[in-house]
Write a structure and sequence with these properties.
With 113 residues, the chain is α+β, with helices and mostly antiparallel strands. The protein is built from 3 helices and 3 strands. It has helices at 4-11, 50-55, 75-86, and strands at residues 43-48, 91-96, 102-105. The chain has a 3-stranded mixed sheet. The longest helix is centred in the C-terminal third of the chain and has 12 residues, at 75-86. It is elongated, with a radius of gyration of 28 Å. The termini are far apart. The mean pLDDT is 77.
């Protein structure tokens, strides 16, 4: 019969091989090596004329048309509309070209209406 010392040596087995430095070509797991992934940027800044900036002063209501606030024939303002329609959950930041004031346009209000 085996002694207790011999049985515990075989049960506890070997070491778990976790490398401290990843070899070249190996897959990189950021959690394993303590590095965090860079968060995605979920906003875009647009420089707009003062009149457009003032139209967004009270905010845009949920089902209002973008053409009420933007001239969709202008290339810069059309870019705002295109970005907002493709990236619905992102934030738009409008910057007044004269004063440099900034305003953000979010998808929803704070109470999710």
């Amino acid at each position: 019969m085996k002694s207790f010392k011999e049985m515990t040596g075989t049960i506890g087995g070997g070491n778990v091989g976790v490398p401290t430095d990843a070899p070249k070509g190996a897959s990189f797991d950021p959690i394993l090596y303590g590095k965090k992934k860079k968060p995605l940027r979920r906003y875009k800044e647009f420089t707009v004329p003062t009149e457009v900036f003032r139209k967004f002063q009270t905010g845009r209501n949920k089902f209002e048309r973008w053409s009420k606030y933007l001239n969709l024939e202008d290339a810069n303002q059309k870019a705002i509309y295109d970005y907002a329609s493709k990236n619905r959950d992102h934030v738009l930041i409008l910057k007044d070209e004269e004063t440099g004031a900034m305003r953000s346009i979010r998808k929803r209000s704070a109470n999710k209406l």
